Amino acid sequence: MVKSGQIGTGGKVLWALVLALFGLGLAGTQLDRQARRDAQLSHRVPDVFRAYAYENLAHEAYMQGDAQLGLAYARKLVARRPYPSAGPALLTQGLAMDGQSEAAIEALIVAATRGWRDFYTQILMVQSSIGVGDGVTASQRLIALWRAGMRDDLTMSLTSQMLQLPGGSEAFVEGLVEADDKVRNDFFRWALDKGLPGAVLVPLGEKVARSQAGVDCGALLSSVRGYGRGGHFRSASGVWAMLCGDNDASRSSDLAFRSKSDPEGPFDWSYPGAPRLEVEPVQSGEGVSLRYENAEHVRAILARRVVALAPGKHTVRVRAEGRDAQIPAALTLQVRCYSAAGERQDTAPISLRHGTVQFEVPEDSCPGQELVLMAGFGSGYVHALELDGSARVPEAQSASKGREG
Fold first, then answer.
1. Which of 10, 93, 366, 369 is the most exposed place for a label (fewest CB within 10 A)?
2. Per residue in 71-81, pLDDT tens?
3. What is the spatial distance between Cα 281 and Cα 291, in angstroms, rounded to a whole number?
4. Among 152, 187, 153, which residue's Cα sits nearest to residue 172?
Protein backbone atom coordinates (compact mmCIF):
# COMPACT_ATOMS: atom_id res chain seq x y z
CA MET A 1 0.00 0.00 0.00
CA VAL A 2 1.37 3.42 -1.07
CA LYS A 3 1.40 5.89 1.74
CA SER A 4 0.06 9.43 1.40
CA GLY A 5 2.62 11.74 -0.27
CA GLN A 6 4.39 8.89 -1.99
CA ILE A 7 4.28 7.95 -5.72
CA GLY A 8 5.19 4.47 -6.89
CA THR A 9 7.77 3.74 -9.53
CA GLY A 10 5.08 3.24 -12.20
CA GLY A 11 3.49 6.57 -11.35
CA LYS A 12 6.82 8.37 -11.62
CA VAL A 13 7.42 6.89 -15.05
CA LEU A 14 3.92 7.87 -16.17
CA TRP A 15 4.37 11.41 -14.83
CA ALA A 16 7.74 11.74 -16.57
CA LEU A 17 6.17 10.51 -19.81
CA VAL A 18 3.35 13.07 -19.52
CA LEU A 19 5.88 15.85 -18.96
CA ALA A 20 7.99 14.67 -21.90
CA LEU A 21 4.96 14.56 -24.21
CA PHE A 22 3.88 17.98 -23.03
CA GLY A 23 7.36 19.36 -23.65
CA LEU A 24 7.51 17.74 -27.07
CA GLY A 25 4.14 19.20 -28.02
CA LEU A 26 5.16 22.64 -26.76
CA ALA A 27 8.42 22.47 -28.71
CA GLY A 28 6.65 21.35 -31.89
CA THR A 29 4.04 24.10 -31.63
CA GLN A 30 6.73 26.70 -30.93
CA LEU A 31 8.76 25.52 -33.92
CA ASP A 32 5.68 25.84 -36.13
CA ARG A 33 5.13 29.40 -34.90
CA GLN A 34 8.77 30.24 -35.61
CA ALA A 35 8.29 28.88 -39.13
CA ARG A 36 5.76 31.66 -39.65
CA ARG A 37 8.65 34.14 -39.40
CA ASP A 38 11.38 31.92 -40.86
CA ALA A 39 10.15 29.83 -43.79
CA GLN A 40 13.34 27.74 -43.81
CA LEU A 41 12.19 26.05 -40.60
CA SER A 42 9.02 24.67 -42.21
CA HIS A 43 10.59 21.40 -43.34
CA ARG A 44 11.84 20.72 -39.80
CA VAL A 45 8.39 20.94 -38.21
CA PRO A 46 6.95 17.43 -37.61
CA ASP A 47 3.80 16.87 -39.66
CA VAL A 48 1.62 16.47 -36.57
CA PHE A 49 2.49 20.03 -35.46
CA ARG A 50 2.35 21.76 -38.85
CA ALA A 51 -0.06 24.64 -39.38
CA TYR A 52 1.84 27.81 -40.30
CA ALA A 53 4.48 25.54 -41.86
CA TYR A 54 1.93 24.27 -44.40
CA GLU A 55 1.46 27.82 -45.64
CA ASN A 56 5.19 28.24 -46.34
CA LEU A 57 5.46 24.78 -47.91
CA ALA A 58 2.54 25.51 -50.25
CA HIS A 59 4.14 28.79 -51.34
CA GLU A 60 7.41 26.97 -51.95
CA ALA A 61 5.71 24.29 -54.06
CA TYR A 62 3.93 26.91 -56.19
CA MET A 63 7.20 28.78 -56.70
CA GLN A 64 8.67 25.53 -58.02
CA GLY A 65 5.70 25.05 -60.34
CA ASP A 66 4.34 22.01 -58.50
CA ALA A 67 0.60 22.70 -58.32
CA GLN A 68 -0.32 19.25 -57.00
CA LEU A 69 2.10 19.38 -54.07
CA GLY A 70 1.05 22.93 -53.29
CA LEU A 71 -2.62 21.93 -53.32
CA ALA A 72 -1.91 19.04 -50.98
CA TYR A 73 -0.26 21.39 -48.48
CA ALA A 74 -3.05 23.97 -48.91
CA ARG A 75 -5.74 21.38 -48.19
CA LYS A 76 -3.89 20.26 -45.07
CA LEU A 77 -3.67 23.90 -43.98
CA VAL A 78 -7.43 24.35 -44.42
CA ALA A 79 -8.06 21.18 -42.42
CA ARG A 80 -5.74 22.34 -39.64
CA ARG A 81 -6.74 26.04 -39.63
CA PRO A 82 -10.12 26.33 -41.44
CA TYR A 83 -11.05 29.92 -40.62
CA PRO A 84 -8.16 32.22 -41.65
CA SER A 85 -8.07 33.32 -45.31
CA ALA A 86 -4.59 31.96 -46.02
CA GLY A 87 -5.85 28.42 -46.72
CA PRO A 88 -8.55 29.33 -49.26
CA ALA A 89 -6.17 31.82 -50.86
CA LEU A 90 -3.53 29.13 -51.35
CA LEU A 91 -6.21 26.78 -52.69
CA THR A 92 -7.15 29.50 -55.18
CA GLN A 93 -3.64 29.70 -56.57
CA GLY A 94 -3.18 25.95 -56.79
CA LEU A 95 -6.54 25.34 -58.42
CA ALA A 96 -5.88 28.10 -60.95
CA MET A 97 -2.46 26.61 -61.74
CA ASP A 98 -4.11 23.21 -62.16
CA GLY A 99 -6.68 24.59 -64.61
CA GLN A 100 -9.65 24.21 -62.24
CA SER A 101 -11.04 27.70 -62.91
CA GLU A 102 -14.51 27.33 -61.38
CA ALA A 103 -13.17 25.79 -58.18
CA ALA A 104 -10.50 28.51 -58.02
CA ILE A 105 -13.17 31.22 -58.21
CA GLU A 106 -15.16 29.59 -55.42
CA ALA A 107 -12.07 29.39 -53.20
CA LEU A 108 -11.19 33.01 -54.01
CA ILE A 109 -14.65 34.18 -52.96
CA VAL A 110 -14.26 32.39 -49.63
CA ALA A 111 -10.78 33.89 -49.14
CA ALA A 112 -12.01 37.38 -50.02
CA THR A 113 -14.75 37.29 -47.37
CA ARG A 114 -12.17 36.50 -44.68
CA GLY A 115 -9.04 38.24 -45.82
CA TRP A 116 -9.32 42.04 -45.81
CA ARG A 117 -6.22 42.14 -43.60
CA ASP A 118 -4.33 39.36 -45.37
CA PHE A 119 -1.78 40.63 -47.92
CA TYR A 120 -1.67 37.44 -49.96
CA THR A 121 -5.46 37.25 -50.30
CA GLN A 122 -5.71 40.89 -51.32
CA ILE A 123 -3.01 40.44 -53.96
CA LEU A 124 -4.91 37.48 -55.40
CA MET A 125 -8.08 39.57 -55.53
CA VAL A 126 -6.23 42.43 -57.25
CA GLN A 127 -4.64 40.11 -59.80
CA SER A 128 -7.99 38.46 -60.49
CA SER A 129 -9.72 41.83 -60.91
CA ILE A 130 -7.02 43.15 -63.24
CA GLY A 131 -7.21 39.91 -65.22
CA VAL A 132 -10.88 40.52 -66.01
CA GLY A 133 -10.45 44.29 -66.49
CA ASP A 134 -12.28 45.28 -63.30
CA GLY A 135 -10.40 48.46 -62.39
CA VAL A 136 -12.85 49.49 -59.67
CA THR A 137 -12.49 46.32 -57.56
CA ALA A 138 -8.73 46.28 -58.11
CA SER A 139 -8.46 49.91 -56.97
CA GLN A 140 -10.49 49.27 -53.82
CA ARG A 141 -8.25 46.38 -52.79
CA LEU A 142 -5.10 48.31 -53.67
CA ILE A 143 -6.03 51.42 -51.72
CA ALA A 144 -6.58 49.13 -48.73
CA LEU A 145 -3.02 47.81 -49.18
CA TRP A 146 -1.65 51.36 -49.51
CA ARG A 147 -3.45 52.39 -46.33
CA ALA A 148 -2.03 49.32 -44.58
CA GLY A 149 1.47 50.54 -45.44
CA MET A 150 2.29 48.06 -48.22
CA ARG A 151 4.96 49.55 -50.50
CA ASP A 152 6.49 46.38 -51.97
CA ASP A 153 7.37 46.02 -55.67
CA LEU A 154 4.37 43.77 -56.41
CA THR A 155 1.86 46.24 -54.94
CA MET A 156 3.47 49.07 -56.91
CA SER A 157 3.43 47.07 -60.15
CA LEU A 158 -0.23 46.17 -59.72
CA THR A 159 -1.04 49.82 -58.96
CA SER A 160 0.50 50.82 -62.31
CA GLN A 161 -1.61 48.22 -64.11
CA MET A 162 -4.80 49.19 -62.28
CA LEU A 163 -4.43 52.89 -63.17
CA GLN A 164 -4.57 51.97 -66.86
CA LEU A 165 -7.93 50.17 -66.52
CA PRO A 166 -11.32 51.82 -67.11
CA GLY A 167 -12.60 53.22 -63.82
CA GLY A 168 -9.40 52.32 -61.97
CA SER A 169 -7.91 55.77 -61.45
CA GLU A 170 -11.30 57.33 -60.68
CA ALA A 171 -12.02 54.80 -57.92
CA PHE A 172 -8.45 54.92 -56.62
CA VAL A 173 -8.45 58.70 -56.24
CA GLU A 174 -11.60 58.47 -54.12
CA GLY A 175 -9.62 56.27 -51.75
CA LEU A 176 -6.69 58.70 -51.82
CA VAL A 177 -8.96 61.56 -50.80
CA GLU A 178 -10.24 59.59 -47.81
CA ALA A 179 -6.77 58.36 -46.80
CA ASP A 180 -4.37 60.30 -44.59
CA ASP A 181 -1.70 62.70 -45.82
CA LYS A 182 1.06 60.09 -45.61
CA VAL A 183 -0.70 57.76 -48.06
CA ARG A 184 -1.24 60.63 -50.52
CA ASN A 185 2.36 61.79 -50.18
CA ASP A 186 3.69 58.26 -50.65
CA PHE A 187 1.51 57.72 -53.72
CA PHE A 188 2.43 60.96 -55.48
CA ARG A 189 6.12 60.52 -54.65
CA TRP A 190 6.03 57.01 -56.10
CA ALA A 191 4.04 58.11 -59.19
CA LEU A 192 6.41 61.02 -59.89
CA ASP A 193 9.57 58.99 -59.30
CA LYS A 194 8.25 56.20 -61.53
CA GLY A 195 7.43 58.70 -64.26
CA LEU A 196 3.75 57.84 -64.74
CA PRO A 197 2.37 59.46 -67.90
CA GLY A 198 1.04 62.96 -67.41
CA ALA A 199 -2.29 61.88 -68.89
CA VAL A 200 -2.72 59.61 -65.84
CA LEU A 201 -1.03 61.68 -63.15
CA VAL A 202 -2.38 65.17 -63.83
CA PRO A 203 -6.09 64.21 -63.53
CA LEU A 204 -5.32 62.43 -60.24
CA GLY A 205 -3.65 65.56 -58.91
CA GLU A 206 -6.55 67.69 -60.10
CA LYS A 207 -9.15 65.55 -58.32
CA VAL A 208 -7.19 65.48 -55.06
CA ALA A 209 -6.77 69.26 -55.24
CA ARG A 210 -10.48 69.81 -55.83
CA SER A 211 -11.28 67.72 -52.77
CA GLN A 212 -8.97 69.99 -50.74
CA ALA A 213 -7.24 66.90 -49.31
CA GLY A 214 -3.85 67.91 -47.98
CA VAL A 215 -0.37 66.91 -49.10
CA ASP A 216 3.08 67.73 -47.76
CA CYS A 217 4.48 69.93 -50.52
CA GLY A 218 7.96 69.92 -49.01
CA ALA A 219 7.99 66.12 -49.20
CA LEU A 220 6.94 66.24 -52.88
CA LEU A 221 9.39 68.95 -53.93
CA SER A 222 12.28 66.71 -54.97
CA SER A 223 10.04 64.24 -56.81
CA VAL A 224 8.24 66.96 -58.77
CA ARG A 225 11.61 68.44 -59.72
CA GLY A 226 12.87 65.05 -60.88
CA TYR A 227 9.66 64.41 -62.84
CA GLY A 228 10.08 67.70 -64.70
CA ARG A 229 13.77 67.07 -65.27
CA GLY A 230 12.92 63.74 -66.92
CA GLY A 231 10.94 65.46 -69.69
CA HIS A 232 7.54 65.84 -68.01
CA PHE A 233 7.98 69.57 -67.36
CA ARG A 234 4.47 70.72 -68.18
CA SER A 235 2.80 67.87 -66.30
CA ALA A 236 5.11 68.42 -63.31
CA SER A 237 4.23 72.11 -63.34
CA GLY A 238 0.54 71.27 -63.53
CA VAL A 239 0.64 68.79 -60.64
CA TRP A 240 2.62 71.21 -58.46
CA ALA A 241 0.34 74.16 -59.29
CA MET A 242 -2.77 72.14 -58.38
CA LEU A 243 -1.50 70.49 -55.20
CA CYS A 244 0.80 73.24 -53.92
CA GLY A 245 -0.30 76.41 -55.71
CA ASP A 246 -0.20 78.49 -52.53
CA ASN A 247 3.40 77.38 -51.97
CA ASP A 248 4.53 78.13 -55.52
CA ALA A 249 7.09 80.90 -55.84
CA SER A 250 8.40 79.53 -59.16
CA ARG A 251 8.94 82.00 -61.95
CA SER A 252 8.66 79.62 -64.84
CA SER A 253 9.15 82.23 -67.59
CA ASP A 254 12.42 83.75 -66.38
CA LEU A 255 15.55 82.91 -64.42
CA ALA A 256 15.06 85.37 -61.55
CA PHE A 257 16.59 84.39 -58.22
CA ARG A 258 14.37 83.44 -55.30
CA SER A 259 14.56 85.27 -52.01
CA LYS A 260 15.24 82.94 -49.08
CA SER A 261 12.07 84.22 -47.46
CA ASP A 262 10.02 82.83 -50.36
CA PRO A 263 8.87 79.19 -50.20
CA GLU A 264 10.82 77.07 -52.64
CA GLY A 265 9.11 75.72 -55.74
CA PRO A 266 10.44 72.83 -57.83
CA PHE A 267 11.45 75.11 -60.71
CA ASP A 268 13.07 77.88 -58.68
CA TRP A 269 16.78 78.24 -58.22
CA SER A 270 17.91 76.12 -55.29
CA TYR A 271 21.02 76.82 -53.24
CA PRO A 272 22.61 73.50 -52.22
CA GLY A 273 25.52 74.96 -50.18
CA ALA A 274 29.05 73.66 -49.58
CA PRO A 275 31.77 73.95 -46.91
CA ARG A 276 33.34 77.42 -46.76
CA LEU A 277 30.86 78.73 -49.31
CA GLU A 278 28.46 81.57 -48.55
CA VAL A 279 25.49 82.16 -50.85
CA GLU A 280 22.83 84.68 -49.98
CA PRO A 281 20.01 86.15 -52.08
CA VAL A 282 19.89 89.88 -51.33
CA GLN A 283 17.69 92.73 -52.45
CA SER A 284 19.35 95.09 -54.91
CA GLY A 285 18.46 97.64 -57.52
CA GLU A 286 18.14 94.73 -59.96
CA GLY A 287 15.61 92.84 -57.78
CA VAL A 288 17.06 89.81 -56.01
CA SER A 289 20.80 89.33 -56.56
CA LEU A 290 22.98 86.47 -55.45
CA ARG A 291 25.88 87.43 -53.21
CA TYR A 292 28.54 84.75 -52.87
CA GLU A 293 31.95 84.13 -51.36
CA ASN A 294 33.89 80.92 -51.97
CA ALA A 295 36.85 80.50 -49.62
CA GLU A 296 37.97 77.25 -51.27
CA HIS A 297 40.23 77.03 -54.33
CA VAL A 298 37.83 74.58 -55.97
CA ARG A 299 34.72 75.29 -57.99
CA ALA A 300 31.46 75.12 -56.00
CA ILE A 301 27.77 75.19 -56.99
CA LEU A 302 26.09 78.49 -56.14
CA ALA A 303 22.64 77.67 -57.50
CA ARG A 304 20.90 75.26 -59.85
CA ARG A 305 17.56 75.11 -61.54
CA VAL A 306 15.50 72.74 -63.71
CA VAL A 307 14.51 74.00 -67.18
CA ALA A 308 12.96 72.47 -70.29
CA LEU A 309 14.54 73.92 -73.40
CA ALA A 310 13.88 72.97 -77.00
CA PRO A 311 16.67 71.23 -78.92
CA GLY A 312 19.07 73.64 -80.62
CA LYS A 313 21.34 76.56 -79.75
CA HIS A 314 20.58 78.89 -76.85
CA THR A 315 22.13 82.05 -75.52
CA VAL A 316 22.47 83.05 -71.87
CA ARG A 317 23.39 86.55 -70.76
CA VAL A 318 24.62 87.31 -67.27
CA ARG A 319 24.87 90.50 -65.24
CA ALA A 320 27.38 90.06 -62.46
CA GLU A 321 30.26 91.86 -60.75
CA GLY A 322 33.28 91.07 -58.57
CA ARG A 323 35.61 93.23 -56.52
CA ASP A 324 36.72 95.17 -59.63
CA ALA A 325 33.15 95.64 -60.91
CA GLN A 326 33.88 93.16 -63.72
CA ILE A 327 32.32 89.75 -64.15
CA PRO A 328 34.49 87.35 -62.12
CA ALA A 329 36.57 85.05 -64.32
CA ALA A 330 35.78 82.14 -62.01
CA LEU A 331 32.03 82.42 -62.61
CA THR A 332 30.82 79.56 -64.86
CA LEU A 333 27.65 77.91 -66.15
CA GLN A 334 27.18 74.18 -66.60
CA VAL A 335 24.30 72.56 -68.49
CA ARG A 336 23.19 69.10 -67.40
CA CYS A 337 21.16 66.95 -69.77
CA TYR A 338 18.74 64.35 -68.40
CA SER A 339 17.23 61.51 -70.39
CA ALA A 340 13.74 60.17 -69.74
CA ALA A 341 15.39 57.32 -67.83
CA GLY A 342 17.17 59.79 -65.53
CA GLU A 343 20.64 59.39 -67.03
CA ARG A 344 22.72 62.56 -66.83
CA GLN A 345 25.33 64.08 -69.12
CA ASP A 346 27.16 67.27 -68.15
CA THR A 347 28.75 69.89 -70.36
CA ALA A 348 32.10 71.31 -69.33
CA PRO A 349 31.65 74.48 -67.24
CA ILE A 350 31.43 77.53 -69.55
CA SER A 351 33.06 80.79 -68.40
CA LEU A 352 30.65 83.71 -68.03
CA ARG A 353 33.36 86.39 -67.91
CA HIS A 354 32.34 87.87 -71.28
CA GLY A 355 28.69 88.21 -70.25
CA THR A 356 27.21 86.05 -73.00
CA VAL A 357 27.56 82.33 -73.66
CA GLN A 358 26.02 79.89 -76.08
CA PHE A 359 25.27 76.22 -75.64
CA GLU A 360 23.36 73.60 -77.58
CA VAL A 361 20.69 71.17 -76.40
CA PRO A 362 20.99 67.93 -78.39
CA GLU A 363 18.09 66.72 -80.52
CA ASP A 364 17.82 63.38 -78.72
CA SER A 365 18.24 62.12 -75.14
CA CYS A 366 17.87 65.51 -73.45
CA PRO A 367 14.17 66.22 -72.75
CA GLY A 368 15.01 67.93 -69.45
CA GLN A 369 17.91 70.05 -68.35
CA GLU A 370 19.40 71.71 -65.31
CA LEU A 371 21.34 74.98 -65.33
CA VAL A 372 24.13 75.01 -62.74
CA LEU A 373 25.76 78.29 -61.74
CA MET A 374 29.25 77.73 -60.31
CA ALA A 375 32.12 79.85 -58.99
CA GLY A 376 35.73 79.26 -58.02
CA PHE A 377 37.69 81.07 -55.33
CA GLY A 378 36.56 84.64 -54.72
CA SER A 379 33.43 86.68 -54.14
CA GLY A 380 30.94 88.76 -56.05
CA TYR A 381 27.34 89.36 -57.03
CA VAL A 382 25.23 87.71 -59.71
CA HIS A 383 22.37 90.04 -60.54
CA ALA A 384 20.59 88.12 -63.28
CA LEU A 385 20.74 85.39 -65.90
CA GLU A 386 18.61 85.75 -69.01
CA LEU A 387 17.79 83.25 -71.72
CA ASP A 388 17.31 84.41 -75.30
CA GLY A 389 13.69 85.05 -76.19
CA SER A 390 13.29 81.89 -78.27
CA ALA A 391 14.43 79.74 -75.36
CA ARG A 392 12.07 80.86 -72.65
CA VAL A 393 11.37 78.26 -70.02
CA PRO A 394 7.82 76.91 -70.63
CA GLU A 395 5.07 78.40 -68.53
CA ALA A 396 3.58 76.16 -65.82
CA GLN A 397 0.57 74.38 -67.26
CA SER A 398 -2.79 74.24 -65.58
CA ALA A 399 -4.91 71.11 -65.79
CA SER A 400 -6.90 72.65 -68.65
CA LYS A 401 -3.83 73.24 -70.83
CA GLY A 402 -2.00 70.78 -73.02
CA ARG A 403 -0.14 67.89 -71.39
CA GLU A 404 2.65 65.74 -72.63
CA GLY A 405 2.51 61.98 -72.13
1. 10
2. 777 777 766 66
3. 6
4. 187
